[in-house]
Design brief:
Helix content: 25-40%
Number of strands: 13
Strand content: 5-15%
Radius of gyration: 22 Å
Order of helices and strands: EHEEHHHEHEHEHEHEHEHEHEHEHEHHH
Largest sheet: 7 strands, parallel
């Protein structure tokens, strides 16, 4: 046994969505590599996306402990119940982030009152649970995965109390990120201070992208150890034996959520232009948006008269999403035009590569575009380029008709194999434990 890892993460099954995949797979493969793993996560998670099937992936020896959390989400849910609105379980429409029908602006206003985020009320219960876990079995190293970034606060508090090292695992940036923009200069300063405390108190900082690593390095110089990038990946087990759902026509599939500046508009405008122009691709084209439905996309599809081409299955389990990927002819990746998007490698992209499918990437020049180009996986079009998107669809359609669609390079695909990525993680944890023992 290499040691006992306490993995602290708010995002974990039965919650679904992309945020749970990295901690879930890390726990799974660390256990296979000989670590004793305990996961500390939230009890009775609030939110719209649930996928209990993911829990079956955990080895039997991975223990999962859950701690209650006091947060605004629960207050909103209580008020709804008092108003006679029953709480909906396993919601499949999820613009919802746990705040039910509140507008996004109101959600951000509520979040701005909390540093580092509105999950900070989880801290006292999580710290108490971690101490009980340590009392039963000595913890050798703590790993905290964020966002929510409150997990880091739990980790540094418990690491200090127990006298053990901790590792910060950053799936998204605390500062300068696309999804976590501070509302005021004061909030920005407080978040920067929080990031400095994380980077300087952790024995290691592990990030999901090189852009994240560069950002922390530039903002927090002088740390004992430079941040290390271990990318998100795909789990070969998810694709082994999974059956593709084949559909008629030339099928383009998007798995994920449209939110913020990540929108379907350019793609839909390109399809509408192809339809208006009488392009032959329209006779074969079928587009599927698989994921939580935002408020704008269904009406945008209807407004453009594309209901016969675009299907909206909504949120599905991760296993079902894999079958959708395997059944597609081309997989769609969409990022916003924001400068921060250049440093994003969407968690979907490694899985698209793992499905060995062509990719149409509507993304800015940056990390995701580089991966698509380097792998030869398909087409890259800058966000906002309607004509370029339409032309790329036509080129891919012509290749489809000839049976000559591109296939991602196997060497590049192998770079995103979760089992190998977590093996690198394991070696870092071994170093941290050895340093802590010294």
């Amino acid at each position: 046994m290499k040691g006992h890892v306490l993995l602290i993460t708010y995002e974990f099954p039965p919650k679904g969505g992309p945020g749970v995949q990295r901690p879930l797979k890390t726990a799974k493969y660390l256990s296979r590599l000989g670590w004793s793993v305990t996961v500390l996560t939230v009890k009775d998670p609030m939110g719209g996306m649930m996928d209990e099937t993911l829990l079956s992936e955990l080895p039997d020896d991975v223990r999962v402990e859950r701690a209650w959390s006091l947060e605004p989400t629960r207050v909103v849910a209580l008020l709804r119940r008092l108003r006679g609105v029953a709480r909906r379980e396993h919601v499949r429409t999820a613009g919802s982030r746990g705040y039910t029908s509140l507008p996004r602006g109101a959600i951000r206003f509520i979040q701005a009152f909390f540093i580092p985020d509105e999950k900070v009320g989880w801290t006292p219960w999580a710290v108490s649970a971690a101490r009980r876990i340590h009392a039963r079995q000595h913890v050798d190293v703590v790993v905290a995965s964020g966002p929510p970034f409150s997990a880091y606060g739990v980790a540094w508090r418990i690491a200090r109390r127990l006298g053990v090292p901790w590792v910060a695992d950053a799936r998204d940036p605390i500062v300068g990120g696309y999804f976590f923009k501070p509302l005021t200069p004061l909030h920005d300063r407080l978040m920067r201070r929080y990031e400095r405390k994380v980077a300087r108190s952790a024995a290691r900082v592990v990030t999901a992208t090189d852009g994240l690593t560069r950002g922390i390095t530039s903002r927090v110089p002088g740390a004992a150890h430079a941040p290390v990038t271990i990318a998100n990946g795909f789990d070969p087990d998810d694709f082994a034996g999974a059956a593709a759902i084949r559909r008629e026509g030339f099928v383009l599939t998007y798995t994920g959520t449209f939110q913020g500046s990540i929108r379907a508009d350019v793609l839909l405008e390109a399809i509408a232009a192809l339809k208006t122009g009488g392009s032959p691709v329209i006779h074969d084209l079928r587009v599927r948006f698989v994921g939580p439905l935002d408020t704008d996309t269904p009406s945008a599809v209807t407004a453009r008269g594309l209901g016969d081409i675009v299907s909206l299955p909504g949120y599905v389990s991760h296993a079902e999403a894999v079958t959708e990927m395997l059944g597609a002819d081309v997989l769609l990746l969409v990022l916003g035009p924001d400068a921060a998007s250049a440093d994003i490698v969407s968690a979907k992209l490694p899985e698209y590569l793992g499905a060995h499918k062509p990719v149409l990437a509507l993304v800015p020049d940056g990390l995701a575009a580089d991966v698509v180009r380097r792998s030869g996986a398909g087409e890259v079009v800058r966000p906002g380029d309607v004509a370029g998107t339409a032309a790329a669809i036509e080129r891919l359609h012509a290749q489809w008709r000839e049976g000559a669609l591109p296939v991602p390079d196997t060497d590049v695909v192998a770079e995103f194999d979760r089992s190998e990525l977590v093996a690198r993680y394991s070696r870092i944890l071994e170093q941290v434990v050895e340093e802590g023992a010294g």
